[in-house]
Amino acid sequence: MSGITLTRAGPLTTLQDGGRFGMLAHGISASGPMDGRAFAEAGALLGRAGATGIEVTRAGLGLVADGPLGAAVAGGAFTLTVNGETQAWPARLGLKPGDAVEITPGAAGNYGYVRFDREMDVPQLLGSRSTNVTVGLGGFKGRALRAGDRIGFLGEGQAIISRPALPGPDDGAIRVIWGIHADLFHPAIRRRFVEEPFEVSQGLDRMGVRLLDRDGVFHDQKRLSLVSDAIVPGDIQILGDGTPIVLMRDHQPTGGYPRIATVVSADFDRFAQLRPGADVRFRPVTVEHAR
User: Fold this and answer.
1) pLDDT value at position 25?
2) Under a CB-based contact definition with an 8 Å cutoff, are residues 206 and 130 in contact?
């Protein structure tokens, strides 16, 4: 059976599928692709794809195919070459034995996806092949991929139904609904939260994205000590020092910091692709609008 061998892998390059749901009560988040829409787009380009693909981080990826293989790439704006020849991005590829694929940083985005026309030969654990590097579960030996890893394939993939595009806000703001602790913040702080821009910091990974509060929106917020309760992807926690952090796919199961808002799922993918240094503004919407 054909396979691929990685020649290069950026930090936190992992295998992901749709996610491992229903395990949060046991301390395991769902994981899955940081940009679910881009992951789906790569599958749709193939028409028939395995449920599992490679999530490529900003530093890129290199691989060599050791057999005929259909592949597709999408997400962000990366640079793609096959045997040294530049290809379009996103793209569908027909790889031959020995073909070398190189994905290198491009103009935008943190995450790209490589999917194949068959399923990857890694164990399914707790209903998913997704990697949760926080707990060392799933994917390829429970860890991020690295150069020298070889991954084989099983039978052909399943037919993919294209996911419809969802509209974004006209002003580019990330839409949120107010969180369960929003009323613990002074009205002036809540007002500034949606008026002032924040900056995506270098502190981002699959667990969370720290934001720089350049205008001191939370500078005067008193520290709050709360009973820990369940959290979800997109929750915006305000840490004890006033730092906002947006929780991502590999978030911890519970948190004791106040959560002022939650990014709506329709904008989660777009937020995940914002690179360090990018400005981000939040715009509150109703639950009905989010749905």
Assistant:
1) 86
2) no
Separation CA 97–CA 113 (nearest Å): 21
- H helix or E strand, kind and range, residue 258: none
The answer to whether residues 45 and 92 touch, using CB atoms and an 8 Å cutoff, is yes
The residues with which 63 forms a beta bridge, in sequence order, are 6, 101
Find out whether 128 and 138 touch, Cβ atoms under 8 Å.
yes
What predicted TM-score, i.e. pTM, was given to this entire model? 0.93
Q: Supply 187's token pair.
A: 């009205």
The closest alpha carbon to 182, from 216, 130, 221, belongs to 221
Instruction: Tell me whether residue 123 is exposed, middle or buried, using C-beta atoms within 10 angstroms of its C-beta: 0 to 12, 13 to 18, 19 or more.
Output: exposed
Tell me the C-alpha distance between 42 and 59, whole Å: 19
SS (H, E, C) 81-111: EECCEEECCCEEEEECCCCEEEEEEEEECCC
pLDDT tens figures, 106-153: 999 999 999 999 999 999 999 999 999 888 999 999 999 999 999 999
The C-alpha atoms of residue 170 and residue 261 are separated, in whole angstroms, by: 20
Q: Is the dihedral of CA 92, 205, 108, 34 positive or negative?
A: positive
96 and 65 Cβ atoms separated by less than 8 Å? yes
Instruction: Judge contact between 171 and 283, C-beta under 8 A.
Output: yes
User: What is the predicted pLDDT for the residue at 159?
Assistant: 65
Tens of pLDDT, residue by residue over 176-200, are 999 999 999 999 999 999 999 999 9
With vertex at residue 166, the alpha carbon angle to CA 273 and CA 177, rounded to the nearest 5 degrees, is 75
> What gap in Å lies between CA 291 and CA 286, rounded to an integer?
9
* Structure-token pair, residue 152: 């084989």
What b/e string do you get for 10-39 counting C-beta neighbours within 10 Å, with b at 16 or more? bebbbbbbbbbeebbeeebbbbbbbbbbbb
Task: Output the six-digit token pair for 141.
Answer: 């030996």
